[in-house]
């Protein structure tokens, strides 16, 4: 029995574990492992609680005395729930989360054991920063970096899986000289500026608005494979995706997996991680099968952007840990399997006021609709003016495999508003009038009396649009499933804040000149629509016609990651980010270098995996099988069964032809990699990897996948697609 067949036997023998659901109601379970507002209200003095609440709402400074009281309460609460350690939990530019655990246990000067956690340890820690990517912001020997407590994101308890828990404190991560080395610090800055800009514009319509909060709902797609089969695929283990694998006879053609019945084993995993997520205050509400076999999705309730991103990063880590318990490997790579859908992380973004208004929700009241149109068109204008930057924010080696195929949006950034909204904006430009009916005024007449009328939204969804309006929010569909959503949200928040400030500036000038407010608003919006309408597209983003149309409209079609990332370094980007105080020129260039270097390393790893698998697994196995065929053909020939021997000889020749090409291509790819590694300029090295090394990937794959069809199933060394994708 081969290693692969043994792995498949193990995988097929798995059964769904018996789960004991918590005795608490879900509502009581929710947030039980978080240092929530209710916990703070119980454990803190009224004065300390008020100061913390003000800091969370308005960003006011927390003094050291309050920090000492909070740390004492946190320690008491965490230890009572079984915690033994604490850590500043942060999100460096590796794309994952990071933590360094310190014990509450300490010794006094006279050797007595105590449990200690001071306010200074809560507010600031000093992890070694030398091995985290900095993009040139500091030298390797400059190891000092600081993490700082973010009180707006609740601390939580993470179960270590070995009987202990760790108190995790969401934190920013900065260099010794103060530059941001993480995603959270610039995200928080962008949220402050967007609040300021959006509140300023809201004042034109409603002076009761004092705060605007961006909200986010992140739909997370992922694949599940059995752990045994995962370890039978070195490419999945090393590169996160299958570099080889012939498509099975049945893939996703029937679309029968989509929203289908969830298998007991997968459902047990989902239920388990959802309960754990709810304990951590992650409001996971939706679960379902996705289109591709083996693919699934979960989604939470909308939250404030910073919290939503923290929760998504935590959820991904949690899913992997729970997956281990169920003998599953969770795959977050954007394209782990060729020929079927990849995975995205759809970011549903909107703006809400402290008066309870969704600024991106249309109504039937003219005054409120003018406000809605104002925010809608400012977002469209921001995306139009910074489309290349938005494209850069979702660029990666993994997403490069996904974009433009199997329901993933194309690399051309466009905005879908829907026919009704687009027509309304055309009327605004042509007539200066607005006609809009709310979605609830439209009903489908089904002709079935037992079924009530179904409500129709005022816009449909376009599955091929990277940035689409879906009734009361924008959905950025192009974000990759493995990404930290902070990257595109930092960009979106910043460019919208910048645009809203430009709008307010012009409005103030017009009003100061005596122009009537409504007239001034409409005139500005008319101009914005005229300047931005080239980015609006209602049709099929996969069509060749759209590629030509987009080109004629002057829209970019940036297919390669190394080209897309350049947008981080343009004067337009730097001016916008520095004006908003979100990222400096140095920090932007650092992120550009980090992403380029990450792209190079990912392709370098994939190239090495391809070479190793092709020569040391595939060719070596195939040669042995070919020898058995040759012996069979020789025996038939000796028996003068020439006609029977002929097809076997043809198979031997086919195998040989593929082996020859594979060995040649692997050699050429390896030489190309050596050349690339000797290129000093980082952009040129990335370009060489992306154009000259990567081009061998699909060529080698073609010949390996052909061999998979020729070699006896029992002899093939790698777990096959049909085995990995169709497990119950």
Automatic annotation (TrEMBL):
Pfam families: Gln-synt_C, Gln-synt_C-ter, GSIII_N. Residues 84-178 form the GS beta-grasp domain. Coiled coil: none annotated. SMART domains: Gln-synt_C. InterPro entries: Gln-synt_C, Gln_synt_N, Gln_synth/guanido_kin_cat_dom, Gln_synth_cat_dom, Gln_synth_gly_rich_site, GS_Type-3, GSIII_N. SUPFAM superfamilies: Glutamine synthetase/guanido kinase. This is Glutamine synthetase III. It comes from the Bacteria. It comes from Dyadobacter pollutisoli. GO terms for biological process: glutamine biosynthetic process. Belongs to the glutamine synthetase family. Residues 183-618 form the GS catalytic domain. GO terms for molecular function: glutamine synthetase activity.
């Amino acid at each position: 029995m081969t290693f692969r067949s043994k792995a498949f036997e193990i995988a097929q023998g798995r059964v769904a574990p018996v789960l004991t659901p918590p005795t608490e109601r879900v509502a009581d379970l929710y947030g039980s492992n978080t240092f929530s507002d209710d916990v703070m209200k119980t454990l803190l003095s009224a004065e300390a609680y008020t100061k913390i609440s003000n800091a969370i709402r308005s960003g006011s400074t927390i003094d050291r005395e309050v920090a000492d009281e909070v740390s004492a309460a946190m320690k008491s609460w965490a230890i009572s729930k079984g915690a033994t350690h604490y850590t500043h939990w942060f999100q460096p530019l590796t794309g994952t989360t990071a933590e360094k655990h310190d014990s509450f246990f300490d010794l006094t000067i006279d050797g007595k054991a105590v449990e200690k956690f001071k306010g200074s340890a809560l507010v600031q820690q000093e992890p070694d920063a030398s091995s985290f990517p900095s993009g040139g912001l500091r030298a390797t020997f400059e190891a000092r970096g600081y993490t700082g407590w973010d009180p707006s994101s609740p601390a939580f308890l993470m179960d270590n899986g070995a009987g202990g828990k760790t108190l995790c404190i969401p934190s920013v991560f900065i260099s010794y000289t103060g530059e941001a080395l993480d995603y959270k610090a610039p995200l928080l800055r962008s949220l402050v500026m967007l609040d300021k800009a959006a509140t300023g514009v809201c004042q034109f319509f409603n002076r009761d608005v004092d705060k605007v909060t961006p909200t986010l709902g992140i739909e997370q797609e992922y694949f599940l494979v059995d752990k045994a089969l995962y370890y039978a695929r070195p490419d999945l283990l090393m590169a996160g995706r299958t570099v080889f694998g012939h498509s099975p006879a049945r893939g996703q053609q029937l679309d029968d997996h989509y929203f289908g019945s969830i298998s007991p084993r997968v459902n047990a995993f989902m239920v388990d991680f959802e309960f754990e997520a709810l304990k951590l205050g992650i409001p996971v509400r939706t679960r379902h099968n996705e289109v591709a076999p083996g693919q699934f999705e979960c989604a939470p309730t909308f939250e404030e952007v910073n919290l939503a991103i923290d929760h998504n990063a935590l959820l991904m880590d949690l899913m992997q840990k729970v997956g281990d318990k169920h003998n599953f490997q969770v795959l977050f790579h954007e394209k782990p399997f060729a020929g079927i859908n990849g995975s995205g992380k759809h970011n549903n973004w909107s703006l809400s006021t402290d008066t309870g208004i969704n600024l991106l929700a249309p109504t039937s009241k003219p005054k409120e609709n003018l406000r809605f149109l104002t925010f809608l068109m400012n977002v469209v204008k921001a995306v139009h003016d910074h489309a290349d930057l938005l494209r850069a924010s979702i660029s990666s080696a993994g997403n490069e495999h996904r974009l433009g195929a199997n329901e993933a949006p194309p690399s051309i950034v466009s905005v879908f508003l829907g026919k009704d909204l687009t027509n309304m904006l055309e009327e605004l430009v042509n007539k200066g009038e607005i006609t809009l009916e709310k979605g609830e005024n439209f009903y489908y007449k089904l002709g079935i009396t037992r079924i009530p009328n179904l409500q129709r939204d005022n816009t449909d969804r376009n599955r091929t649009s990277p940035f689409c309006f879906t009734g009361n929010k924008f959905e950025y569909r192009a974000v990759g499933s493995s990404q930290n959503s902070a990257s595109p949200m930092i960009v979106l928040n910043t460019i919208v804040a910048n645009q809203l400030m430009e709008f307010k500036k012009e409005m103030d000038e017009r009003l100061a000149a005596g122009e009537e407010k409504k007239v001034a608003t409409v005139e500005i919006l008319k101009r914005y629509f005229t300047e931005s309408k080239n980015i609006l597209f209602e049709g099929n983003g996969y069509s060749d016609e759209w590629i030509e149309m987009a080109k004629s409209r002057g829209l970019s079609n940036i297919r390669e990651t190394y080209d897309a990332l350049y947008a981080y370094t343009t004067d337009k980007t730097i001016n916008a980010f520095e004006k908003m105080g979100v990222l400096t020129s140095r920090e932007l260039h650092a992120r550009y270098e980090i992403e380029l270097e990450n792209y190079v390393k990912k392709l370098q790893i994939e190239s090495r995996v391809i070479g190793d698998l092709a020569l040391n697994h595939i060719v070596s196995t195939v040669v042995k099988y070919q020898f058995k065929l040759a012996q069979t053909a020789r025996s038939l020939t000796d028996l003068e069964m020439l006609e029977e021997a002929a097809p076997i000889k043809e198979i031997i020749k086919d195998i040989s032809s593929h082996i020859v090409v594979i060995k040649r291509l692997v050699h050429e790819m390896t030489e190309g990699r050596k050349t690339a590694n000797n290129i000093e300029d980082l952009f040129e090295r990335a370009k060489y990897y992306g154009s000259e090394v990567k081009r061998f990937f699909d060529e080698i794959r073609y010949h390996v996948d052909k061999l998979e069809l020729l070699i006896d199933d029992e002899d093939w060394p790698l777990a096959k697609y049909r085995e990995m994708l169709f497990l119950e």
